[in-house]
Amino acid sequence: MTQAYSTSTEHPIRRACRTIALIAAILAGSAAHALAQEGIKIPAPALDEMASDGKSEVAVLAGGCFWGVQGVFQHVKGVANAVSGYAGGAAKSAQYETVSSGATGHAESVKIIYDPRRISYGRILQIYFSVAHDPTELNRQGPDRGTQYRSAIFPVNDEQAKIANAYIGQLDQAKLFDAAIVTKIEPGQAFYPAEDYHQDFLTLNPTYPYIVYNDLPKIANLKRIFPDLYREDPALVSEAGSTN
Known about the structure:
- The protein is of the alpha+beta class.
- The chain is built from nine helices and eight strands.
- The chain has helices spanning 12-28, 31-38, 66-74, 96-99, 121-132, 158-174, 201-204, 209-225, 237-240, and strands at 57-63, 79-87, 107-114, 140-141, 144-145, 151-153, 184-185, 191-193.
- The strands form two sheets. A six-stranded mixed sheet has the order 7-6-1-3-2-8.
């Protein structure tokens, strides 16, 4: 992601560099980005979690800039909250400026709180691989580069790790993507919420060029490919009242 910012405080040089990088990415028009713009219809996982009577479960996923990943899952039925944050590194380095160095071990991530009676972990992963990001890009997504933008799943238990591993194998065997999936499965990692100005960024900034070019197409793809799971009104952090 290009540097997140408050328009009143961002340094002009940083703003100019970010704009140039975005324009260059648009002009490049890579085939990989074109594929990501279209999304891809993939089968549901053959292995999924057992039906649960619980009211709330958690999935933590990383797929490039957290603005878009959060935005996608906020429009998924059964998702009660989706929080932007960091996973993969230590608590002391879980701040945007530090994570942006690419040296903390963190990935920009999203904590998804969902109702397992309405949507399963496997279906969450199906959306993640299909429209939320391109799982074949190593340590990058679109114009963003670095390990902080890696494709990664942070399972919260052994069952989630088993489902994720099996699903990656299933998708690779089906050869639905032009390259192998590079998504890492990283268990045992804590999640740390991002700063308030990152939360609900897509909804609050729908005309911001980065959002228009990189993220709004993901929302459109979700609606097109998963109409049964799409919700028009997003589940916002500001309405949930908590990032925990």
